[in-house]
Amino acid sequence: MVVDCGQLDFSVSYDLNEIINMNNKMIFKLIFTTFFAALLTTGCGNSTTKPVKVKEPVEVSDNIVLSIEIPVAGNSWILDKVSESTTLIGDQGITNWTNANDELVTYVYVSRTGSINVGIKGHVLKGQASIEVSLNNNHQVVELSNTNVEIIPVGEFYVDEIGYQQVIIRGKSSSSDTFPQLSHVVIGGDATEGQNYYVKDDFYWGRRGPSVHLKYTKPNLGENNEWFYSVSNDLPLA
Questions:
Q1: Which stretches of 19-101 are assigned E, i.e. beta strand?
Q2: Domain boundaries, the chain
Q3: In whole angstroms, what is the distance from residue 125 CA to residue 202 CA?
Q4: How far apart are CA 199 and CA 164, in angstroms?
Q5: Could you say which of 48, 168, 174, 203 would form a disulfide bridge with 129 (CB–CB 3.0 to 4.6 Å)?
Q6: From residue 111, how far is each of 66, 106, 165 by CA, in Å?
């Protein structure tokens, strides 16, 4: 028997008289050698091995880190347009956005200054669209053509003062009847490494704003009272 596997070439041959005169140890050696040769024949022979495909590493655009998703549903309004803020913004974010004059403004509080990365999470219904994102007088334009929801990096901006930041998004152009549907503004970077404040889930209370309720202990019911008042001391007005 001859086994040929590339550069491997050896033979195993015995005649009947040799097998008869073998002791048990030699017979075991013969069986083992024959079995090993059969394995090599099966494993090598004419079989082919397909190369394993290794995925190439995917590089995030400009290494922009985006880690915090701010829901449009609870933190955004149409600038100076109360009615449009109600009709265009819902639980899914901004939808049915057709007017380029409707500017989407999103608020987030950051407690540090420094660079801040901004992106958007959304998609177009069809075709492609271009939008402009502004923060602190820095304006950057990004194009969308994805019909599935994705996080699209916009670029790096800068926060020079602690407090609430306005991210303003304007529709520039669209090949269809609508601008992109946006569910989140996404941020990251040095300025977001501290405490950040925005409405995360309870959108009803986040959008309607805070309210204050005062209650009074009823005076003696026998008294005739015309009015009540409250006094607040050391309460800042702004």
A1: 68-71, 76-78, 89-90, 93-94
A2: 2-43, 61-208
A3: 28
A4: 13
A5: 174
A6: 17, 17, 10
| Residues sharing a CB contact under 8 Å with residue 37, sequence separation 6 or more, in sequence order | 1, 3, 10, 12
Mean pLDDT by 10 residues, the chain (238 residues): 42 45 49 45 38 32 84 96 95 96 97 97 97 97 97 96 97 96 97 96 84 74 74 65
**102, 111, 131, 103: which is closest to 119 by C-alpha?**
131
- Among the four given CATH numbers 3.90.70.10, 1.10.240.10, 3.50.50.60, 2.60.120.260, the one describing domain 61-208: 2.60.120.260
CA nearest to 164, candidates 64, 70, 86, 67: 70
Token code pair at residue 42: 């099966």
